[in-house]
Design a protein that fits this description.
Length: about 300
């Protein structure tokens, strides 16, 4: 057996994603490079690690056992590295954060200085929809989660970061600006929703339900970026977080259409399980957030007050 740590890492990611394409994207490697490493790794075993059924990749039972072993080996390697840094007087460890998709416009600014100061900390950040973020928190798979809607069934602690405003937006120069009856925006114009499980979709559906609008035309897209591009292209209208459309508003690609009852205002919260035994790295990050959040908001998000 001559497999390398690099091969273990690649196979573990393939096993997690059950996709060579997705594994290559997360590892920032080309798809052919990942495929070659998988083949070289497979050649060292007499039993298959993967199988393809109907063009879909599956991990065999044997492969799952190898993936579990690979994870344990890699965790031990990380522990050795962190212990070395610890004895050198550096803060070290891994910190995992799950972030709702529009939170990707927020959390990097609160992480930047901290990560530069503590080079011994490895950051793992998953950006997904609210449902999956809450699941990862509930399963204790992450240290922190960034959400704009607090999970109701979990006992959590939190730090409030900043406001999250959601406006009704359309393509610049839209015919909607000349419409007098605002109800017609929702009942006659095509609306673009995020996918099920998205907090933005929940806020949009809640607003529509509270106002008893009857929706006739709608489409569903699976990311904030996809919704934004669709609105810019004139495919429809949507309620979107202000945080994600700064450049498009300033460039004149999008416009906010005033609607009574909007914006919807929520709060970005960094949350963690109350029972969570936070690592030294996670505790240090919390202290950093509490000490610097006001300065970060003033320096990086002062433009939000313009809307």
């Amino acid at each position: 057996m001559n497999y390398t740590l690099h091969q273990l890492k690649i196979f573990l990611k393939i096993a997690e994603k059950q996709s060579i394409t997705k594994a290559s994207e997360e590892l920032h490697l080309t798809q052919p490079a990942v495929s070659i490493q998988l083949k070289n790794f497979q050649d060292q075993f007499s039993l298959p690690l993967t199988e393809v059924v109907g063009r879909k990749l599956f991990i065999t039972d044997f492969g799952k056992e190898i993936a579990d072993a690979a994870e344990k080996i890699l965790n031990e390697v990380y522990a050795i590295n962190y212990k070395t840094l610890f004895y050198e007087g550096q803060l070290a460890g891994r910190m995992k954060i799950s972030v709702v998709s529009t939170g990707k416009y927020v959390i990097p600014y609160f992480l930047s200085a901290f990560m530069k100061e503590h080079s011994g900390i490895d950051l793992i950040m998953d950006v997904t929809n609210k449902t999956k973020v809450v699941e990862s928190l509930e399963k204790n798979e992450v240290d922190f989660a960034l959400v704009s809607v607090l999970p109701k069934k979990l006992k959590i602690d939190r730090v409030e970061l900043m406001e999250n405003k959601l406006f009704f937006v359309g393509q610049s120069g839209s015919i909607a600006t000349g419409m007098q009856d605002k109800r017609k925006f929702f009942e006659e114009l095509p609306l673009i929703f995020r996918e099920q499980g998205s907090a933005t979709r929940g806020a949009m559906e809640g607003f529509i339900a509270n106002n008893r609008f009857s929706i006739r035309k709608k489409m569903e897209l699976t990311s904030n970026e996809a919704v934004k591009q669709a609105v810019i292209a004139g495919l429809g209208y949507s309620i979107m977080p202000l945080i994600g459309i700064k450049n498009e508003l300033r460039n004149g690609d999008l416009q906010i259409i005033p609607i009574k009852g909007l914006p919807i205002i929520t709060t970005w919260n960094l949350v963690w399980l109350r029972s969570k035994n936070l690592s030294p790295a996670a505790r240090a990050f919390l202290e950093h957030i509490k000490e610097t959040k006001s300065q970060i908001i003033a320096e990086k998000f002062n433009w939000l007050g313009d809307y």
